[in-house]
Fold these 4 entries.
Entry 1:
Amino acid sequence: MSEVFVNGQFAGTVEDPREFMEKVRSERRKGGVSQIVNVHWFEPLDRVMVECGRGRVRRPLVVVKDGIPLLTEKHIKQLQKDEISWNDVVAQGVIEYLDAGEEENCLIAFSESELTAQHTHLEISPLVMLGLCTSLVPYGDYIQSARLIIGARNLKQSIGFYASNFPVRMDMDVNILHTAQAPIVQSIMHDLSDYNAHPSGQNIVVAVMSFKGYNIEDAVILNKGSIERGFARSTYFRPAVAEELRYSGGLMDEVSIPQKEAKGYKSERDYRLLEDDGIVFPEAAIKEEDVVIGKTSPPRFLSSLEEYSLASNIRRESSLALKHGEQGVVDFVLVTENEEGNKLVQVRLRDQRIPEIGDKFTSRHGQKGITGLIVQETDMPFTASGIIPDLIFTPHGIPSRMTISHLIELVGGKTGALAGRLIDGTTFDAEPEEALRKELKRLGFRENGTETMYNGMTGEQYEAKIFVGTMYYLKLKHMVANKIHSRARGPIQLLTRQPTEGRAKEGGLRLGEMEKDTFVAHGASLLLKERFDSDRTIVPVCEGCGIIAIHDAIKNKRYCPICGDNVEVSDIEVSYAFKLILDEFKSLGIYPKLMLKNKY
């Protein structure tokens, strides 16, 4: 007897679990049992598990009987003509949904040609094992699995035409590629997802070769001529938002040009771009620290005395200015109201981004790289037919990563560009590589995709044949303009007196344990004295009790809080963070005694 569990709860027993399972399945296919019921037999424990609860991942498969799929050509034609729907096919028992449990008792064929009498189900298409982004990668069955995942991730980070109504949207941190194109090498998912309406890359000529060592370690080399013709040019948008908040006591913020009496008034130069309503005008070129929206707020603390004095009328400056390192052009100004009916001002800034050294590019196969050099068009290598590549890709990125699909796309893109057609690169069902090579040969090129190339600077012919083709390349949102950061002196935190953190706050660049080791290994350990003094401070210490003494600057006198006046006090150099932890120990009632002795 086998135990039966329904949604994990014991329901009864059956004599023959196989017969019970077959009965449930046949009833489900006829419509006698709900479509959401799944059943499987767990042989080691001799338990039949019936599941119909929520939260299970279920997937559709074609039912197979005696080695023949129930989905016929007639069904497919009816579906294409919209005579029947997907739900009708499921209701007829031709297609059924299985969960992870029931799949254990099934034998699923990958394709129709593999079917035998033992098979119970057939995949609708092997492509369904991949998600939307992953199935956009062409020739995905010719690539190492980890790289396929990276390729899908990179597609999500690429800059493209994300929405057709972008001129009227106020999105945070978005990019638009100026001349986005649809790829030459496509998959079926490009049609199904209407990819032409929102492309995110460009078809470019790629040569696989080394060039002066500037494309070492995955870097790529760009042709300056291609950039000047508009390759990978994009615009970066970000909004600046300010609203008139309402405070208790009927006081409100006010969007306007702050008066000179306002507390925290900047300088007239900072407000020069504001119009009479306190908002910047469209198409104004603005740089860091320029005010975009002028705003004043009521004073923070109203004491009983101030209410009757003139001081209560002094407002606080709370304008919105550009942060450190930001710049752009005012693209769009929107004045509206929020849910509470308060005035809301949104200003969208745009900044044109031209590819530069440090920008990130990738193919759809996880072959990502940073721009290492931008070369004058006259110095770029060229083919015998006069084609100059837009991008030079390093050959060392292929052997260890096994992204053969990257190379096939180069040949496919070249064939498609010359033949003037799109190439089908759908995973598991693509145009075969042999057919592409034959077509390339018919078009007058070498079938292996290589060409004779010449040195752009000397005009000499390269001895090696260079692999050249057309490829869909993506520009990623990781641009050096958003990440570059340097600092000499700048703001510090109030508590620790150490530099602030992060690029937006003009923070310091942290030197950690490993960076310290590199200096020591170089024999430059004295440099660490200068590196680690961001919070250097001089504190007076009592020689008697070892507690930090007090320096009275007004009386120009030092004394110890414990020993009093007549004691020797010495100045020592410590990190402020150390002085802070001593104070914290004192607050816990712990006595941190400093034992001083001479350096020499």
Entry 2:
Amino acid sequence: MSTPHIEIGLAPLSIEDVRKVAEHHHPVRLSDDPAFVNTLRRGREGAEALWRNNQVVYGVTTGVGEACERHIDSELVDAFPMQLARFHGCGMGAILDETTCRAAVMIRLVSLRSGWSGVRPALLEHLVNLLNHGIIPCIPAEGSVGASGDLTPLSYLAAVIMGERDVYYRGEVVPAAQAYERAGLVPLPLKGKEALAIMNGTAVMTAIACEAVARARNLVCLASRLTALITAALQLNQNHFDPRTFACKPFPGQARVAALICSALGYRAEDYRFAPDQRIQATYAVRCAPHILGVLEDALDWMTQHVVIELNSANDNPLFDPETGDVLHGGNFYGGHIAFAMDGLKNAVANCADLIDRQMALLVNEHRNNGLPPNLSGAQGARAHINHGFKAVHIATSAFAAEALKNSVSASIFSRSTESHNQDKVSMGTIAARDALRVLELTEQTLAATLLGAAQAFELRVQRGELRLNDLTDILQNLFAALRTHSDFLDEDRPLDADLRRVCAAIRRGSEGGLM
């Protein structure tokens, strides 16, 4: 069965549509709806009419930024895009992975489809060909202040359209010209306004934000199941998650997290019986988990809305009204909403890392783990004195969480004045988005380690005859079984780095990773 196309027309697209193209390589096609086709045509015709009639249009008949007072002769209008793409080729740092670069191409295509950017339909068709043939620009991570958009990172897309710089192609990094030749395609010379339309927008920060939001949603779900597994393994009071508690403080996301934990535990208020020898209240790391994870769950609703609006917007400058032909000089390239969402996301995610680290501390502490061995060691007899179980893993987990917290500082408050004080207040949206991914990576490492600790704690209970596997719900049995495919029970000490990497990879794959 063929993979369904993602159609680019006038209808809005979702983060999931972007992920289908970026991660799963769904093919893309332009709509043949007459309203869409006519909007694109009118947008370009109106834009061309302006400079053919010698009207001043920023970035077409003028220089850019502080140089906007410079006049560009009509015979150089189509030469200027190449210059614009070339002098912005100064990106540094790691090259973004192919999935993120694919997402950036897709998002730029979605932005340009409105007709307000004044580009030729041929440019949209070329972007479709790049995606469908897998010719994806290699975009450096560093060099954008998030206004005027992602100028330097997106210059790599503009250059690739013209056949320059390097691309991902069929599992290799090759010169763009070579990829075109192998794919049987030819580069597209950019004409007036088109390099600016490609570069003067928020596609890179939004691409990263799409991934960050999706990974954060997976994190909430899996951290909720982790909390349930720890509650079961340490035989803690399940009444902490009773839905009546959360009806009294009705944050929707907080209630959803509590419901996830109850579902994973199989908790029903009418059936629950408190054990007389049970500690009445667990520490905050368990009892308040819905209140901490719930902040992220609630915030993801508005963060997702910010990202979806951004990816469906015409976010370059200038814009051309397809109906009237009017030119609008503005600042839609500004990445403030993405910056704010990503700064908020990394703060909420880092708090989850801190929570999960505290849960690991609870598991390994013999004074808090309800009778389990120190550091969850599975060694027996005299060998118990030379084995240290999850001791070092706990130290590493604290390191991951601490670094996540350190990286949660807002990027947008570090706005700089750049480009001769023309770009005198910038968003830092791309840096905020990259920070958010780093915080997510560290939090996923914290989560992986604590998941293995919770599985170890449960299996120790089983070995001691205090619990049975069948005491867990299907949800937690499946989670436990999935963890055991990546890491065996720890009896004698062994390096756990490979185990942790396998669990991290499964977490990154979300629902396809087998842990959810």
Entry 3:
Amino acid sequence: MTHTRRIHILDPRLANQIAAGEVVERPASVVKELVENAIDAGSQRIEIDLESGGARLIRVRDDGRGIDQEDLPLALSRHATSKIASLDDLEGVDSLGFRGEALASISSVSRLELISNTHDEPSDGWRVVAEGRQMEPRVTPAPHPRGSSVVVRDLFFNTPARRKFLRTEKTEFGHVEEAFRRLALSRYDIGWILRHNQKVVHQLRAGDASTSMERRVGALLGRKFLENALHVDIEATGLRLWGWVGLPTHSRAQADQQYFFVNGRVVRDRLVAHAVRQAYRDVMFHGRHPVFVLYLELDPHVVDVNVHPTKHEVRFRDGRLVHDFLFSSLHRALADVRPNASSTEGGDEATPSTDATTPTAAEASAGQAEPRWQQQGMALAAGQERERPAAHRVREFMAGYRALHPEHEASLLTPQPQEAAGEAPGTPAPPASSSPAMAETDDTQAPPLGYAVAQLHGVYILSQTERGLVVVDMHAAHERITYERMKQQVHGDGQALGRLQTQPLLVPVSIAASAREVETAENERATFERLGVELDVAGPETLLVRQVPVLLGNADVEALIHDMLGDLERFGRSDRLEVHINELLSSMACHGSVRANRRLTVPEMNALLRDMERTERSGQCNHGRPTWTEMSMHELDKLFLRGQ
């Protein structure tokens, strides 16, 4: 093997093939690049045709602005683009493709044909062809409607080593379909068609945002996704987050339904992933992954999309602000999920939707974007408003319950003492702001979780609701209630750990640290103090821990500080200390909650149901397991073949 010793200019064809190694990984990469160009061209309809998973043929056709005849040869040149002209353009990119590498790279490893027309007359089209070799492209007439078509045949025909890395036709088409799904979710105002081997796989109509978003999400991810998702729309300090986040009970074994878009560009970003993971931390069962389709909109000048050739990654100018905004918004949305009476007939689960007012700049910068949430059932998630049952129907329901339990009639309108629910001594009292459920004072509105009728095997509470039957795991539910009250006592408002009791260490803990960690510790001194940690710099590579929260007296302080410094450096914030404290509180809550096989009276069971309706995250226990489920009358009738 010979090695070149002299510096020389690479052959253009070789340079393009090297670039193709970064941009063109498989047929799905080609589809992504070509479709992004079609979107940037202002297309309203995009058609994608494939053969053999895209290895034999990829055709992308659009109705956009097209390319002028004299620009067609230049379009296949490397670093040729119409989307940026100066550094200012690069610092505020608002288009999807801008590097000018895609067509040149693709044409170097395939047989590429580009046909385009900038006029309304179909006979005005022109064609340019490149077949994986260095040549001067020749422009010839070719009839074509207004817009462009790019045809890519025999991908990697001249690089057999790379062609061997392609998988089966089914696998490659699966990757293309996933790329198509992401692109179609990025633009609801564009109509889409995907065909494979002359068979239509997806056909999606265009529409305005108000009518097409839910239809598009349902078509690509299934109606079950929408029926088990919260709709969010939050704005703060130039940031807007909107879309859908799945309920904790609707999770996946793998992270295959997670779509995040920044200014319409699908991205996979560590900062975003960390913020979402934190928001679900307290409600997601171990080993499961949340589902979401989320859109972040912000000024293009404060986000750098020119980080990677495939443009899958971005860099935010103020990463801490973005991270805190995402975390606090999703954390609040998930916390405000309560059992809800606004639901549909026929057994659909209640799925709240959220809307928000605009927080102040100070709140957003501190990670405290706390909007005013309004729970509305699955109505908005399904795109329709549902009517509540008539008042007379609720009266009948409550009258029937009173007839079943006449001795409990007085307790229906009287809030129960917390001790009635079986709380262990020392369990924190409910928040002073807690108020009885509306049903306790309004005879026309039954509580969302209804009223208890029985206890099953000392484990489950059976409750009659307006719609049917609710089954509650009493230990799991009470564990969450106790846990949330303990967290409120310890953490205060949830944003600062100001109420933590701290203790000075008799012997300060000396920690060996890198120069970068020492610098982070100095810059974040106020953050550590707010968390109850006194951290001093004792040398260029030495830190001293003088004080920690009492609850963490037996923790591995050195490992905890290193982890916190790492988080602060990467994400701008750290919740490691809060996680450790919450793990202790969770264990305490588990031991302090009502145990299985304990007999509860009807008033005790109802008190527990009312507490669930008032408690954040009451749909899951501390370990992420569901605390209750519901069967509607429609489902029960179907089970027993009634009306059939």
Entry 4:
Amino acid sequence: MATTTDLNPKNIFDYPKYWAECLTPAPFLPMNRREMDELGWDSCDIILVTGDAYVDHPSFGMAIIGRLLESQGFRVGIIAQPSWQDKTPFMALGPPNLFFGITAGNMDSMINRYTAERKIRNDDAYTPGGEAGARPDRATLVYAQRVREAYKSIPIILGGIEASLRRTAHYDYWQDKVRRSFLVDSKADMLLYGNAERAIVTLAHRLARGEEISSITDLRGSVLLRDNVPEEWYQLDSTTLEPPAQAALHNQDYQPLPLNHFKSTGTAKKFVAPVEQTVIRLPSYEQVRADKNLYAHANRIIHLETNPGNARALVQKHQDRELWLNPPPLPLSTQEMDFIYDLPYQRVPHPQYGQARIPAYEMIRFSVNIMRGCFGGCTFCSITEHEGRIIQNRSEESILREIELIRDQVPGFTGVISDLGGPTANMYRLACRSKEIEAACRKPSCVFPGICSNLNTDHSSLIGLYRKARALPGIKKILIGSGVRYDLATQSPEYVKELVTHHVGGYLKIAPEHTESGPLSKMMKPEIDSYYEFKHLFDKFSAIAGKEQYLIPYFIAAHPGTTDEDMLQLALWLKQNGFRADQVQAFYPSPMATATAMYHTHKNPLRKIKTDSESVDIVKGERRRRLHKAFLRYHDPANWPLLRTTLKQMGRDDLIGPGKKQLVPKIQPADNRPYQSSRRKNSSLTHSKRPRRFQTRFNPKQ
């Protein structure tokens, strides 16, 4: 039995299979009673509810979880994008024998539905036809409530990125307030955070053996509610801004402590609570809702307890209940990753969608995910909070098999693989040089403020993979669509040469995000010098290859810690380098992210929080957010009046005029029409000799 203290758990493919293993794998996991009848099923053991269309492809979370549970011998059904006005659609497959698994889908439902300016989007990439409106706000909560209406006693398990990032009390940008954990509001039985394969397999088998959901309290990566903290646990009180109180036995302070819980400090002995039996008490929901300093403090503690090798359990009171967070899930081994990606996916949408186009599927159908996780720790990004900082890798053999499957089975394949990557393009097989150091580390990033001396930056495994992949028969080209972590790439010029020579289709997108030190330090991104170093290698190897290729830099407007002067300097940099942004992405405060805590509290959780600690400049209000986006689109006449006014207020009238070093002209066009690109609407760059126009919209894989 895997527990929160077990650092060597059973492999997910080693469990004795449930009885339905004798059945043939379903062509597609059933979505209705007719399909169940065709499979000869009288019921489902597990039913998954998702806010996405059902695409049987390993880039879609519910397909992975469904196929994995099927491989364990369970009969799994899927209810995709149900109408949520009443409980009837949630009863389409009948009651499951074990549990309902609920997710909002591959994206947070609020980010999926609203822009950074809180305006409703007019499309949804995970819906047939790209149509908006197929899922409700906070879909995880709504789906859970409808399932509970339909079936009072069947366990409900929450998962996916929406629930994962709302596992504790969290700031909600759309309501501008702190909300309770989704586990509390949904009235579900358990929440699984992060990539939950190991947890969901263990949970399914334990429930199948007859264990009650209320008794399963030791599962890594799980969140549950308790009436109180068990008496045998040591509590570390971190409910104030003062140093944490000495760990003590809950309600048993009078009992003598075991000798092995002490360590020598000179002539004295100091008590050291065992990690596996220690729980850190966070400020309560009521406290973090009322006190922004405590919110920032709690956010800092949560991020310090994300390394599976040393993380302790957390507890946060919500009224009279204890929200209990077990330590993070352990990373999957390469063998386990291969097992998951080798499952019998159809790699196409469910037939019920007919010829309807699902944009998210169109984007990834010829791409291959080679790894998970990211140790970059960018404060605005949700990847590390969800997938973790330890890279989980597939084997070369598994990746090459998938490329051959795409070549042989996926309709419309023309010989071009659109991406070999993951959260980043080039962290494949990069890790700490020492497992012991990795297990003890609490740094939020391996590459900020500089690359850690303990990090192995050898890209040779990735270079070898690229070479073997493009040598496969029938493969004409392999492009790299995932974002390249360019500060890492410069540590391996041979990798940059390989990338530039064989895997760039004219333009390569990278994300410096800003040029100025202030905002970059709040983002935990490298200084702009790293961009110049990478650009030098990129240009050098492009010239050697005889190719005309360009870098497309992405930037974020209005990030916490960004001043008006910072945006002015970025605008001048863009003009000096001849760049014109077609689209601009303003900072989007997603739940749990460190930058979101900065946005809400004006404090910097990257440092210890005190009442008088550093105040972070936050870009709030429509006018100032519009101004920061206007600096990125300095070339648009519609922005010139605002920029002129601001430049005068900043004492920079010298930047108003027709000169090459001036930002905006003095004279406004008579028609005042905004800048319009002459290219196709969705194109991101002109085809001129210099890359003058580009998009800066940041779209992290989730």
